[in-house]
Specification:
single chain; alpha/beta; Purple Acid Phosphatase, chain A, domain 2; 5-stranded mixed sheet; about 20% helix
Length: about 170
């Protein structure tokens, strides 16, 4: 059984509240737009980190983290990209990869809009954790925690970190 902390779009910002929530996880997954290598290093020092680079990430992050990541967690096939869309509105590249790889979880970021949707057509759970950083048009910073127990995805919780303009220490 693995407890996952999932976030995206930190854009170089990581506060103590995020760390507190991620401390209860076995792994951290980041769906891109990390912002800088220091944020990735802080996350990786906390827990094992699986991440993709996003459109604002520089060369240092792109060398360390791919644009697309596919892996198995417990018995669940996971596909993570930064820009991927959502059910019925996937990017053409994401839809191609979903058709080819048939993941059980498809994770994307980029939009700053939190979405958790079961995609009946592709038989997968789509998750966009919203944005944990303070840059962008979102109003509330969010991240998601969930558990993968063998082939079961359960105990998903949305965590609101507060208004993006309010910085907590």
């Amino acid at each position: 059984m693995r407890r996952i902390g999932l976030l995206s779009d930190t854009h170089g910002y990581l506060d103590d509240r995020i760390i507190v929530y991620l401390n209860e996880c076995d792994e951290i997954w980041h769906a891109g737009d990390i912002g800088n290598i220091e944020i990735a290093q802080k996350l990786a020092a906390l827990r094992p980190l699986r991440a993709v680079s996003g459109n604002i990430d520089g060369t240092d992050l792109r060398q360390e983290y791919p644009l697309q990541l596919r892996f198995i967690c417990e018995e669940v096939d996971v596909l993570m990209v930064h820009i991927g869309g959502y059910p019925g509105h996937y990017s053409s590249e994401a839809q191609k990869e979903i058709n080819l790889l048939a993941p059980k979880i498809f994770i994307s970021g980029h939009s700053h809009i939190l979405k958790v949707i079961f995609d009946k057509k592709n038989q997968l759970l789509h998750i966009n954790p919203g944005a944990a950083g303070i840059q962008g048009f979102h109003q509330v910073r969010t991240l998601i925690r969930f558990t993968i127990d063998k082939a079961v995805i359960k105990d998903l919780e949305v965590i609101e970190l507060g208004q993006k303009g309010i910085i907590s220490m």
